[in-house]
Amino acid sequence: MNCPKLVKLPGQGIAGPVVVAIMDGVGIGRGDEADAVAKARKPTIERLAREALTTRLAAHGVAVGMPSDEDMGNSEVGHNALGAGRIVDQGAKLVQVAIDDGSLFRGDAWRAVTSAVKQRGSALHFLGLLSDGNVHSHINHLIAMLRRASDEGVRRAYVHVLLDGRDVPKTSALTYVDALEAVLAEIRQKPDRDYRIASGGGRMVITMDRYESDWSMVERGWKVHVRGEGPQFASARAAVDEYRAKKPGIIDQDLPPFVIAEGGKPVAPIRDGDGVIVFNFRGDRMLEIVRAFETDDFDKFARGKKPDVAFAGMTLYDGDTHSPRQFLVPPPQISCTISELLADAGVEQLAVSETQKFGHVTYFWNGNRTGAFDPKLEKYVEIPSYQPPFEQKPEMRAKEISECIVAELAARDYKLVRLNYANGDMVGHTGNFDATVKAVEAVDSALALLVGPVLDRHGALVVIADHGNADDKAERNKKTGEIVRDTQGHMIPKTSHTLNPVPCYILLAASDRGRFALAAVDRPGLGNIAATIAVLLGFAPPAGYLPSLVRPA
Protein backbone atom coordinates (compact mmCIF):
# COMPACT_ATOMS: atom_id res chain seq x y z
CA MET A 1 0.00 0.00 0.00
CA ASN A 2 1.30 3.44 -0.89
CA CYS A 3 1.12 5.62 2.17
CA PRO A 4 0.24 9.31 2.02
CA LYS A 5 3.02 11.82 2.55
CA LEU A 6 2.77 14.07 5.56
CA VAL A 7 2.31 17.68 4.53
CA LYS A 8 3.99 20.29 6.71
CA LEU A 9 1.86 23.40 7.25
CA PRO A 10 3.86 26.65 7.43
CA GLY A 11 3.77 28.30 10.83
CA GLN A 12 1.78 25.44 12.41
CA GLY A 13 2.67 23.10 15.23
CA ILE A 14 4.73 23.33 18.38
CA ALA A 15 8.49 23.71 18.57
CA GLY A 16 9.15 20.85 20.95
CA PRO A 17 8.33 17.16 21.11
CA VAL A 18 4.96 15.48 21.42
CA VAL A 19 5.31 13.03 24.32
CA VAL A 20 2.51 10.45 24.46
CA ALA A 21 2.36 8.88 27.91
CA ILE A 22 0.10 5.82 28.07
CA MET A 23 -1.13 4.98 31.56
CA ASP A 24 -1.88 1.34 30.85
CA GLY A 25 -5.15 0.27 32.42
CA VAL A 26 -6.01 3.61 34.06
CA GLY A 27 -9.55 4.37 32.92
CA ILE A 28 -12.32 6.59 34.24
CA GLY A 29 -14.41 4.74 36.81
CA ARG A 30 -17.42 5.54 38.97
CA GLY A 31 -15.40 7.13 41.75
CA ASP A 32 -16.73 4.64 44.29
CA GLU A 33 -14.93 2.31 46.68
CA ALA A 34 -13.97 -0.07 43.86
CA ASP A 35 -12.22 2.66 41.87
CA ALA A 36 -8.50 2.47 42.66
CA VAL A 37 -7.82 5.44 40.39
CA ALA A 38 -10.22 7.62 42.37
CA LYS A 39 -8.73 6.44 45.66
CA ALA A 40 -5.14 7.17 44.62
CA ARG A 41 -3.30 10.35 45.51
CA LYS A 42 -2.52 11.85 42.10
CA PRO A 43 -1.56 15.54 42.13
CA THR A 44 -0.07 15.40 38.63
CA ILE A 45 -3.20 13.99 37.02
CA GLU A 46 -5.27 16.53 38.94
CA ARG A 47 -3.04 19.30 37.58
CA LEU A 48 -3.56 17.95 34.07
CA ALA A 49 -7.33 18.00 34.60
CA ARG A 50 -7.09 21.70 35.55
CA GLU A 51 -4.60 22.94 32.95
CA ALA A 52 -4.72 20.62 29.94
CA LEU A 53 -7.12 20.27 27.03
CA THR A 54 -9.20 17.41 28.34
CA THR A 55 -11.59 14.86 26.88
CA ARG A 56 -12.59 11.21 27.21
CA LEU A 57 -11.80 8.46 24.72
CA ALA A 58 -13.55 5.21 23.88
CA ALA A 59 -11.08 2.35 24.33
CA HIS A 60 -13.19 -0.78 23.90
CA GLY A 61 -15.64 -2.41 21.52
CA VAL A 62 -16.12 -1.16 17.99
CA ALA A 63 -13.97 1.90 18.72
CA VAL A 64 -10.91 -0.37 18.68
CA GLY A 65 -12.06 -2.89 16.07
CA MET A 66 -13.73 -5.42 18.38
CA PRO A 67 -16.99 -7.12 17.32
CA SER A 68 -19.32 -5.22 19.66
CA ASP A 69 -19.34 -2.70 22.47
CA GLU A 70 -19.72 -5.56 24.93
CA ASP A 71 -16.10 -6.54 24.18
CA MET A 72 -13.35 -5.20 26.39
CA GLY A 73 -10.42 -3.38 24.92
CA ASN A 74 -6.90 -4.51 25.65
CA SER A 75 -3.38 -3.20 25.33
CA GLU A 76 -2.78 -4.82 21.95
CA VAL A 77 -5.81 -3.49 20.09
CA GLY A 78 -5.47 -0.20 21.94
CA HIS A 79 -1.92 0.38 20.78
CA ASN A 80 -2.84 -0.78 17.28
CA ALA A 81 -5.49 1.95 17.20
CA LEU A 82 -3.15 4.55 18.65
CA GLY A 83 -0.53 3.96 15.99
CA ALA A 84 -2.87 3.29 13.08
CA GLY A 85 -4.98 6.42 13.40
CA ARG A 86 -8.07 4.52 12.34
CA ILE A 87 -10.23 1.58 13.35
CA VAL A 88 -8.95 -1.78 12.16
CA ASP A 89 -10.89 -5.04 12.50
CA GLN A 90 -9.09 -7.03 15.17
CA GLY A 91 -8.39 -10.69 15.92
CA ALA A 92 -11.66 -11.60 17.58
CA LYS A 93 -13.73 -10.11 14.80
CA LEU A 94 -11.51 -11.48 12.04
CA VAL A 95 -11.69 -14.99 13.46
CA GLN A 96 -15.45 -14.90 13.93
CA VAL A 97 -15.96 -13.70 10.37
CA ALA A 98 -13.64 -16.43 9.07
CA ILE A 99 -15.61 -19.07 10.98
CA ASP A 100 -18.98 -17.70 9.92
CA ASP A 101 -18.11 -17.51 6.22
CA GLY A 102 -16.15 -20.78 6.28
CA SER A 103 -12.90 -19.26 5.03
CA LEU A 104 -11.01 -20.54 8.07
CA PHE A 105 -11.90 -24.12 7.15
CA ARG A 106 -11.11 -23.61 3.47
CA GLY A 107 -7.70 -22.18 4.29
CA ASP A 108 -4.41 -23.94 3.66
CA ALA A 109 -3.46 -24.18 7.33
CA TRP A 110 -6.66 -25.86 8.50
CA ARG A 111 -6.59 -28.28 5.60
CA ALA A 112 -2.92 -29.08 6.13
CA VAL A 113 -3.30 -29.90 9.81
CA THR A 114 -6.57 -31.84 9.57
CA SER A 115 -5.49 -33.73 6.45
CA ALA A 116 -2.26 -34.76 8.14
CA VAL A 117 -3.97 -36.28 11.18
CA LYS A 118 -6.60 -38.03 9.07
CA GLN A 119 -3.97 -39.56 6.80
CA ARG A 120 -1.85 -40.68 9.74
CA GLY A 121 -4.74 -41.73 11.95
CA SER A 122 -3.24 -39.50 14.62
CA ALA A 123 -4.68 -37.00 17.09
CA LEU A 124 -5.55 -33.34 16.70
CA HIS A 125 -4.74 -31.13 19.71
CA PHE A 126 -6.15 -27.69 20.51
CA LEU A 127 -4.23 -25.48 22.94
CA GLY A 128 -5.42 -22.13 24.26
CA LEU A 129 -7.22 -20.00 26.80
CA LEU A 130 -10.63 -21.41 27.72
CA SER A 131 -13.02 -18.50 28.28
CA ASP A 132 -15.25 -16.03 26.49
CA GLY A 133 -13.18 -13.01 27.52
CA ASN A 134 -12.58 -12.34 23.81
CA VAL A 135 -9.22 -10.74 24.61
CA HIS A 136 -6.95 -13.70 23.84
CA SER A 137 -9.51 -16.26 22.66
CA HIS A 138 -13.14 -17.27 22.70
CA ILE A 139 -14.56 -20.66 23.64
CA ASN A 140 -17.02 -20.43 20.75
CA HIS A 141 -14.13 -20.45 18.26
CA LEU A 142 -12.79 -23.64 19.85
CA ILE A 143 -16.19 -25.32 19.82
CA ALA A 144 -16.73 -24.43 16.16
CA MET A 145 -13.40 -26.00 15.25
CA LEU A 146 -14.05 -29.13 17.29
CA ARG A 147 -17.42 -29.66 15.60
CA ARG A 148 -15.92 -29.05 12.17
CA ALA A 149 -13.04 -31.43 12.82
CA SER A 150 -15.48 -34.17 13.75
CA ASP A 151 -17.64 -33.45 10.73
CA GLU A 152 -14.56 -33.73 8.52
CA GLY A 153 -13.64 -37.13 9.92
CA VAL A 154 -11.01 -36.34 12.55
CA ARG A 155 -11.47 -39.24 14.96
CA ARG A 156 -9.39 -38.09 17.93
CA ALA A 157 -9.13 -34.54 19.27
CA TYR A 158 -7.87 -33.30 22.62
CA VAL A 159 -7.98 -29.91 24.27
CA HIS A 160 -5.25 -28.47 26.49
CA VAL A 161 -7.06 -25.82 28.47
CA LEU A 162 -5.50 -22.69 29.97
CA LEU A 163 -7.81 -21.36 32.68
CA ASP A 164 -8.54 -17.66 32.70
CA GLY A 165 -9.90 -15.73 35.69
CA ARG A 166 -8.28 -12.57 34.35
CA ASP A 167 -10.42 -11.43 31.42
CA VAL A 168 -13.48 -13.05 33.00
CA PRO A 169 -14.60 -13.51 36.65
CA LYS A 170 -11.71 -14.83 38.70
CA THR A 171 -13.24 -18.17 39.67
CA SER A 172 -15.36 -18.91 36.60
CA ALA A 173 -13.24 -21.75 35.19
CA LEU A 174 -15.79 -24.50 35.70
CA THR A 175 -18.39 -22.58 33.72
CA TYR A 176 -16.21 -22.98 30.65
CA VAL A 177 -14.92 -26.44 31.52
CA ASP A 178 -18.47 -27.76 31.87
CA ALA A 179 -19.58 -26.11 28.61
CA LEU A 180 -16.64 -27.67 26.77
CA GLU A 181 -17.17 -31.08 28.36
CA ALA A 182 -20.80 -31.05 27.19
CA VAL A 183 -19.71 -30.48 23.58
CA LEU A 184 -17.00 -33.14 23.81
CA ALA A 185 -19.49 -35.64 25.24
CA GLU A 186 -21.90 -34.89 22.40
CA ILE A 187 -19.18 -35.52 19.80
CA ARG A 188 -18.17 -38.77 21.52
CA GLN A 189 -21.65 -40.13 20.80
CA LYS A 190 -20.59 -40.50 17.18
CA PRO A 191 -18.85 -43.72 16.13
CA ASP A 192 -15.05 -43.77 16.45
CA ARG A 193 -14.77 -40.39 18.15
CA ASP A 194 -12.56 -39.69 21.15
CA TYR A 195 -12.72 -35.99 22.02
CA ARG A 196 -11.51 -35.03 25.52
CA ILE A 197 -9.67 -32.50 27.66
CA ALA A 198 -6.08 -33.67 28.01
CA SER A 199 -4.29 -31.18 30.28
CA GLY A 200 -4.48 -27.69 31.68
CA GLY A 201 -3.62 -25.12 34.31
CA GLY A 202 -3.86 -21.44 35.15
CA ARG A 203 -2.77 -18.95 32.50
CA MET A 204 -0.30 -17.22 34.84
CA VAL A 205 1.28 -20.53 35.87
CA ILE A 206 1.77 -22.36 32.59
CA THR A 207 2.34 -21.66 28.90
CA MET A 208 1.19 -18.04 28.55
CA ASP A 209 4.34 -16.09 29.39
CA ARG A 210 5.12 -13.05 27.25
CA TYR A 211 8.16 -11.00 26.29
CA GLU A 212 10.39 -13.76 27.72
CA SER A 213 9.66 -12.68 31.27
CA ASP A 214 9.45 -16.22 32.68
CA TRP A 215 10.28 -19.16 30.43
CA SER A 216 9.62 -21.53 33.35
CA MET A 217 5.91 -20.96 32.70
CA VAL A 218 6.34 -22.27 29.18
CA GLU A 219 8.40 -25.19 30.44
CA ARG A 220 5.65 -26.19 32.86
CA GLY A 221 3.15 -26.02 30.02
CA TRP A 222 5.38 -28.07 27.76
CA LYS A 223 5.64 -30.80 30.39
CA VAL A 224 1.90 -31.22 30.83
CA HIS A 225 0.78 -30.65 27.23
CA VAL A 226 3.53 -32.49 25.36
CA ARG A 227 5.02 -34.97 27.80
CA GLY A 228 1.96 -35.63 29.90
CA GLU A 229 4.00 -35.06 33.04
CA GLY A 230 2.23 -33.56 36.03
CA PRO A 231 -0.36 -34.17 38.74
CA GLN A 232 -2.96 -36.60 37.39
CA PHE A 233 -6.72 -36.26 37.62
CA ALA A 234 -9.74 -38.02 36.15
CA SER A 235 -11.12 -34.76 34.76
CA ALA A 236 -10.49 -31.04 34.57
CA ARG A 237 -13.35 -30.43 37.00
CA ALA A 238 -11.75 -32.80 39.50
CA ALA A 239 -8.46 -30.92 39.19
CA VAL A 240 -10.05 -27.52 39.76
CA ASP A 241 -12.12 -28.77 42.68
CA GLU A 242 -9.12 -30.36 44.41
CA TYR A 243 -6.86 -27.35 43.92
CA ARG A 244 -9.52 -25.03 45.30
CA ALA A 245 -10.06 -27.29 48.29
CA LYS A 246 -6.32 -27.38 49.01
CA LYS A 247 -5.93 -23.61 48.69
CA PRO A 248 -9.18 -21.76 49.38
CA GLY A 249 -9.36 -18.42 47.62
CA ILE A 250 -7.05 -19.38 44.75
CA ILE A 251 -8.11 -17.72 41.50
CA ASP A 252 -8.24 -19.44 38.15
CA GLN A 253 -5.19 -17.81 36.60
CA ASP A 254 -3.06 -19.23 39.45
CA LEU A 255 -4.29 -22.84 39.36
CA PRO A 256 -1.44 -25.40 39.13
CA PRO A 257 -1.00 -27.61 36.06
CA PHE A 258 -2.82 -30.91 35.70
CA VAL A 259 -2.87 -33.93 33.39
CA ILE A 260 -5.95 -36.01 32.63
CA ALA A 261 -5.07 -39.67 33.08
CA GLU A 262 -6.56 -43.15 33.00
CA GLY A 263 -4.92 -46.11 34.68
CA GLY A 264 -1.98 -43.94 35.72
CA LYS A 265 -1.22 -42.89 32.13
CA PRO A 266 -1.93 -39.51 30.47
CA VAL A 267 -4.78 -39.79 28.00
CA ALA A 268 -3.27 -37.62 25.27
CA PRO A 269 0.25 -36.19 25.38
CA ILE A 270 1.29 -34.59 22.09
CA ARG A 271 3.24 -37.14 20.04
CA ASP A 272 5.01 -37.45 16.69
CA GLY A 273 2.56 -37.33 13.83
CA ASP A 274 -0.12 -35.40 15.71
CA GLY A 275 -1.60 -32.05 14.73
CA VAL A 276 -1.59 -28.99 17.00
CA ILE A 277 -3.70 -25.85 16.69
CA VAL A 278 -3.13 -22.96 19.07
CA PHE A 279 -6.51 -21.23 19.20
CA ASN A 280 -5.62 -17.92 20.85
CA PHE A 281 -5.96 -15.11 18.33
CA ARG A 282 -3.82 -12.67 20.32
CA GLY A 283 -0.16 -13.40 19.88
CA ASP A 284 1.89 -11.94 22.71
CA ARG A 285 1.31 -14.81 25.14
CA MET A 286 1.54 -17.55 22.50
CA LEU A 287 4.82 -16.64 20.81
CA GLU A 288 6.99 -18.55 23.26
CA ILE A 289 5.09 -21.85 23.10
CA VAL A 290 5.12 -21.47 19.31
CA ARG A 291 8.92 -21.16 19.42
CA ALA A 292 9.10 -24.31 21.51
CA PHE A 293 7.15 -26.20 18.85
CA GLU A 294 8.78 -24.68 15.76
CA THR A 295 12.41 -23.92 16.64
CA ASP A 296 15.03 -26.64 16.12
CA ASP A 297 17.87 -24.82 17.90
CA PHE A 298 16.04 -24.18 21.16
CA ASP A 299 17.78 -23.37 24.45
CA LYS A 300 15.20 -21.69 26.69
CA PHE A 301 14.57 -24.84 28.75
CA ALA A 302 15.32 -28.55 28.57
CA ARG A 303 12.69 -29.28 25.97
CA GLY A 304 13.82 -32.80 25.11
CA LYS A 305 12.88 -34.28 21.76
CA LYS A 306 10.55 -31.96 19.86
CA PRO A 307 7.58 -33.91 18.50
CA ASP A 308 7.15 -33.84 14.73
CA VAL A 309 3.67 -32.32 14.42
CA ALA A 310 1.55 -30.45 11.91
CA PHE A 311 1.30 -27.08 13.66
CA ALA A 312 -0.78 -23.93 13.18
CA GLY A 313 -1.72 -20.86 15.16
CA MET A 314 -5.03 -19.05 15.01
CA THR A 315 -3.40 -16.07 13.32
CA LEU A 316 0.03 -14.67 12.54
CA TYR A 317 1.49 -13.63 15.87
CA ASP A 318 4.64 -11.90 14.62
CA GLY A 319 4.92 -10.79 11.01
CA ASP A 320 8.65 -10.07 11.10
CA THR A 321 9.63 -13.52 12.39
CA HIS A 322 6.70 -15.15 10.57
CA SER A 323 5.57 -16.94 13.69
CA PRO A 324 3.83 -19.30 13.51
CA ARG A 325 4.72 -20.56 10.06
CA GLN A 326 1.12 -21.67 9.44
CA PHE A 327 -1.94 -19.76 10.67
CA LEU A 328 -5.67 -20.16 10.20
CA VAL A 329 -6.72 -16.52 9.83
CA PRO A 330 -4.64 -13.73 8.27
CA PRO A 331 -3.98 -10.89 10.76
CA PRO A 332 -5.05 -7.30 10.21
CA GLN A 333 -2.81 -5.58 7.73
CA ILE A 334 -2.01 -2.22 9.31
CA SER A 335 0.12 -0.03 7.10
CA CYS A 336 0.74 3.70 7.09
CA THR A 337 0.89 4.04 10.87
CA ILE A 338 1.80 7.45 12.26
CA SER A 339 5.29 6.19 13.14
CA GLU A 340 5.79 5.03 9.55
CA LEU A 341 4.60 8.35 8.11
CA LEU A 342 6.79 10.35 10.49
CA ALA A 343 9.83 8.20 9.69
CA ASP A 344 9.20 8.80 6.00
CA ALA A 345 9.08 12.54 6.75
CA GLY A 346 12.43 12.40 8.53
CA VAL A 347 11.05 12.88 12.04
CA GLU A 348 13.04 11.44 14.95
CA GLN A 349 11.11 9.18 17.35
CA LEU A 350 11.68 7.51 20.71
CA ALA A 351 9.74 4.60 22.26
CA VAL A 352 10.31 3.53 25.87
CA SER A 353 8.67 1.00 28.17
CA GLU A 354 9.52 -1.76 30.55
CA THR A 355 9.50 -5.34 29.31
CA GLN A 356 5.87 -6.07 30.17
CA LYS A 357 4.63 -3.45 27.70
CA PHE A 358 7.64 -2.93 25.45
CA GLY A 359 6.00 -4.69 22.51
CA HIS A 360 3.04 -2.38 22.80
CA VAL A 361 4.92 0.85 22.09
CA THR A 362 6.91 -0.87 19.33
CA TYR A 363 5.32 -3.89 17.64
CA PHE A 364 1.63 -3.11 18.23
CA TRP A 365 1.99 0.67 17.82
CA ASN A 366 3.76 0.05 14.51
CA GLY A 367 0.88 -2.00 13.11
CA ASN A 368 2.17 -5.45 14.13
CA ARG A 369 5.69 -4.82 12.92
CA THR A 370 8.67 -5.62 15.13
CA GLY A 371 11.45 -3.45 13.72
CA ALA A 372 11.90 0.26 13.30
CA PHE A 373 10.89 1.86 10.01
CA ASP A 374 14.14 3.82 9.95
CA PRO A 375 16.69 2.82 12.62
CA LYS A 376 18.61 6.04 12.05
CA LEU A 377 15.58 8.08 13.11
CA GLU A 378 14.05 5.79 15.74
CA LYS A 379 15.30 4.56 19.09
CA TYR A 380 13.57 1.88 21.16
CA VAL A 381 14.48 1.45 24.83
CA GLU A 382 13.38 -1.57 26.88
CA ILE A 383 13.73 -1.35 30.66
CA PRO A 384 13.68 -4.85 32.21
CA SER A 385 10.60 -5.55 34.31
CA TYR A 386 10.74 -6.94 37.80
CA GLN A 387 9.61 -10.53 38.14
CA PRO A 388 6.01 -11.03 39.30
CA PRO A 389 4.10 -10.96 41.58
CA PHE A 390 3.65 -7.34 40.56
CA GLU A 391 1.58 -6.41 43.60
CA GLN A 392 4.75 -6.72 45.67
CA LYS A 393 6.40 -3.93 43.65
CA PRO A 394 3.46 -1.84 42.40
CA GLU A 395 5.80 0.99 41.43
CA MET A 396 7.23 -1.34 38.74
CA ARG A 397 9.64 0.64 36.52
CA ALA A 398 7.58 3.81 36.01
CA LYS A 399 10.19 6.13 37.52
CA GLU A 400 13.00 4.64 35.43
CA ILE A 401 10.93 5.09 32.26
CA SER A 402 10.49 8.79 32.96
CA GLU A 403 14.14 9.22 33.90
CA CYS A 404 15.17 7.55 30.66
CA ILE A 405 12.98 9.89 28.62
CA VAL A 406 14.28 13.00 30.39
CA ALA A 407 17.84 11.92 29.64
CA GLU A 408 17.03 11.11 26.00
CA LEU A 409 15.30 14.46 25.45
CA ALA A 410 18.41 16.21 26.73
CA ALA A 411 20.60 14.27 24.32
CA ARG A 412 18.60 14.27 21.07
CA ASP A 413 15.93 16.29 19.29
CA TYR A 414 13.08 13.79 19.23
CA LYS A 415 9.73 15.05 17.95
CA LEU A 416 7.57 12.06 18.91
CA VAL A 417 8.11 10.16 22.14
CA ARG A 418 5.80 7.35 23.19
CA LEU A 419 5.93 5.48 26.48
CA ASN A 420 3.86 3.04 28.47
CA TYR A 421 3.52 2.81 32.23
CA ALA A 422 2.45 -0.80 32.85
CA ASN A 423 1.44 -0.38 36.50
CA GLY A 424 -2.31 0.16 36.32
CA ASP A 425 -2.83 -2.89 34.15
CA MET A 426 -0.31 -5.41 35.47
CA VAL A 427 -1.01 -4.69 39.14
CA GLY A 428 -4.73 -4.29 38.43
CA HIS A 429 -4.81 -7.82 37.04
CA THR A 430 -3.75 -9.21 40.42
CA GLY A 431 -7.02 -8.03 41.98
CA ASN A 432 -5.10 -6.49 44.89
CA PHE A 433 -6.89 -3.19 45.51
CA ASP A 434 -4.35 -1.54 47.80
CA ALA A 435 -1.48 -2.44 45.50
CA THR A 436 -3.43 -1.06 42.53
CA VAL A 437 -3.88 2.26 44.33
CA LYS A 438 -0.12 2.37 44.88
CA ALA A 439 0.43 1.51 41.22
CA VAL A 440 -1.64 4.50 40.10
CA GLU A 441 0.22 6.73 42.53
CA ALA A 442 3.53 5.52 41.09
CA VAL A 443 2.36 6.45 37.60
CA ASP A 444 1.32 9.89 38.81
CA SER A 445 4.75 10.44 40.38
CA ALA A 446 6.46 9.31 37.17
CA LEU A 447 4.36 11.70 35.10
CA ALA A 448 5.48 14.55 37.35
CA LEU A 449 9.06 13.97 36.20
CA LEU A 450 8.05 14.61 32.58
CA VAL A 451 6.03 17.80 32.90
CA GLY A 452 8.87 20.27 33.34
CA PRO A 453 11.29 18.82 30.74
CA VAL A 454 8.54 18.58 28.11
CA LEU A 455 7.08 22.05 28.65
CA ASP A 456 10.54 23.64 28.94
CA ARG A 457 11.14 22.45 25.38
CA HIS A 458 7.80 23.93 24.24
CA GLY A 459 6.46 20.44 23.75
CA ALA A 460 3.13 18.77 24.38
CA LEU A 461 2.50 16.09 26.99
CA VAL A 462 -0.38 13.88 25.83
CA VAL A 463 -1.51 11.62 28.69
CA ILE A 464 -3.96 8.83 27.86
CA ALA A 465 -4.79 5.23 28.71
CA ASP A 466 -5.25 2.28 26.38
CA HIS A 467 -8.14 0.69 28.29
CA GLY A 468 -9.58 0.48 31.78
CA ASN A 469 -8.60 -1.82 34.62
CA ALA A 470 -7.53 -0.02 37.80
CA ASP A 471 -10.71 2.06 37.62
CA ASP A 472 -12.95 -0.82 38.74
CA LYS A 473 -11.57 -3.57 40.92
CA ALA A 474 -14.79 -5.26 42.06
CA GLU A 475 -17.16 -7.68 40.40
CA ARG A 476 -20.57 -6.13 39.80
CA ASN A 477 -24.12 -7.32 39.37
CA LYS A 478 -24.61 -7.22 35.60
CA LYS A 479 -28.16 -5.92 35.89
CA THR A 480 -27.83 -3.36 38.68
CA GLY A 481 -24.14 -2.47 38.56
CA GLU A 482 -23.91 -2.94 42.31
CA ILE A 483 -20.68 -4.27 43.82
CA VAL A 484 -20.77 -8.01 44.54
CA ARG A 485 -19.60 -8.93 48.03
CA ASP A 486 -18.65 -12.09 49.88
CA THR A 487 -20.29 -13.32 53.07
CA GLN A 488 -18.07 -11.01 55.14
CA GLY A 489 -19.15 -7.99 53.12
CA HIS A 490 -15.85 -7.62 51.29
CA MET A 491 -15.76 -6.70 47.61
CA ILE A 492 -15.12 -9.67 45.33
CA PRO A 493 -12.02 -8.58 43.39
CA LYS A 494 -12.22 -7.99 39.67
CA THR A 495 -9.08 -8.90 37.72
CA SER A 496 -10.17 -8.08 34.19
CA HIS A 497 -10.26 -4.96 32.05
CA THR A 498 -13.24 -2.62 32.12
CA LEU A 499 -15.53 -1.08 29.53
CA ASN A 500 -14.96 2.41 30.89
CA PRO A 501 -13.71 5.36 28.83
CA VAL A 502 -10.17 6.58 29.34
CA PRO A 503 -8.83 10.09 29.94
CA CYS A 504 -7.02 12.26 27.44
CA TYR A 505 -5.03 15.26 28.68
CA ILE A 506 -3.08 17.45 26.25
CA LEU A 507 -0.82 19.75 28.24
CA LEU A 508 0.93 22.54 26.34
CA ALA A 509 3.54 25.09 27.30
CA ALA A 510 2.09 28.42 28.41
CA SER A 511 3.12 30.08 25.14
CA ASP A 512 1.20 27.47 23.12
CA ARG A 513 -1.99 27.13 25.14
CA GLY A 514 -3.86 29.79 23.19
CA ARG A 515 -2.85 28.31 19.85
CA PHE A 516 -4.91 25.10 20.08
CA ALA A 517 -8.44 24.18 21.06
CA LEU A 518 -10.34 20.92 21.30
CA ALA A 519 -11.96 20.00 18.01
CA ALA A 520 -15.56 18.86 17.72
CA VAL A 521 -15.12 15.10 17.25
CA ASP A 522 -17.99 12.63 17.29
CA ARG A 523 -17.30 9.71 19.66
CA PRO A 524 -13.57 10.33 20.12
CA GLY A 525 -11.47 7.22 20.63
CA LEU A 526 -7.92 5.97 20.68
CA GLY A 527 -7.82 6.07 16.88
CA ASN A 528 -7.98 9.89 16.99
CA ILE A 529 -4.61 10.22 18.72
CA ALA A 530 -2.45 9.69 15.62
CA ALA A 531 -3.95 12.63 13.73
CA THR A 532 -3.68 14.68 16.93
CA ILE A 533 0.06 13.98 17.00
CA ALA A 534 0.35 15.10 13.38
CA VAL A 535 -1.50 18.37 14.01
CA LEU A 536 0.55 19.17 17.11
CA LEU A 537 3.71 18.64 15.08
CA GLY A 538 2.47 21.01 12.39
CA PHE A 539 1.37 18.50 9.75
CA ALA A 540 -1.97 18.26 8.01
CA PRO A 541 -4.02 15.31 9.32
CA PRO A 542 -3.10 12.27 7.20
CA ALA A 543 -5.59 11.12 4.60
CA GLY A 544 -7.72 8.24 5.82
CA TYR A 545 -7.09 8.93 9.49
CA LEU A 546 -9.75 9.66 12.07
CA PRO A 547 -9.86 13.41 12.84
CA SER A 548 -7.55 15.17 15.25
CA LEU A 549 -8.75 15.94 18.74
CA VAL A 550 -7.25 19.42 18.51
CA ARG A 551 -7.36 22.23 15.96
CA PRO A 552 -5.54 25.52 15.60
CA ALA A 553 -7.38 28.10 17.71
Into which percentage range does the β-strand content fall? 15-25%
CATH class of the largest domain: Alpha Beta
- What is the SS-derived class? alpha/beta
| Rg over C-alpha atoms, rounded to the nearest angstrom | 24 Å
Low-confidence stretches: none
Query: What's the CATH architecture name of the largest domain?
Result: 3-Layer(aba) Sandwich
Give helix % range: 25-40%
Please state the average pLDDT score. 96
Report the sheet with the most strands, covering strand number, pairing sense and barrel closure.
Answer: 9 strands, mixed
Q: Tell me which oligomeric state these chains represent.
A: single chain
What count of structural domains? 2
Q: How many strand elements?
A: 18
Tally of DSSP helical segments: 17
CATH topology of the largest domain: Alkaline Phosphatase, subunit A
CATH superfamily of the largest domain: Alkaline Phosphatase, subunit A
Gap from first CA to last CA: 34 Å
Task: Briefly characterize the structure.
This protein is 32% helix and 17% strand.
How are the SSEs ordered, and which strands pair?
Elements: E1 18-23, H1 36-39, H2 43-51, E2 53-57, H3 75-84, H4 91-100, H5 103-106, H6 108-120, E3 124-130, H7 139-151, E4 156-163, H8 173-188, E5 194-202, H9 215-227, E6 232-233, H10 236-246, E7 258-262, E8 265-266, E9 275-278, H11 287-294, E10 310-315, E11 327-329, H12 338-344, E12 349-354, H13 355-364, E13 378-383, H14 398-411, E14 416-421, H15 423-426, H16 433-456, E15 460-464, E16 502-508, E17 516-518, H17 529-536, E18 550-552
Parallel strand pairs: 1-14, 1-15, 3-4, 3-9, 4-5, 6-7, 9-10, 10-11, 12-13, 12-14
Antiparallel strand pairs: 2-16, 5-7, 7-8, 15-16, 17-18
Helix pairs in contact: 3-13, 7-8, 14-16
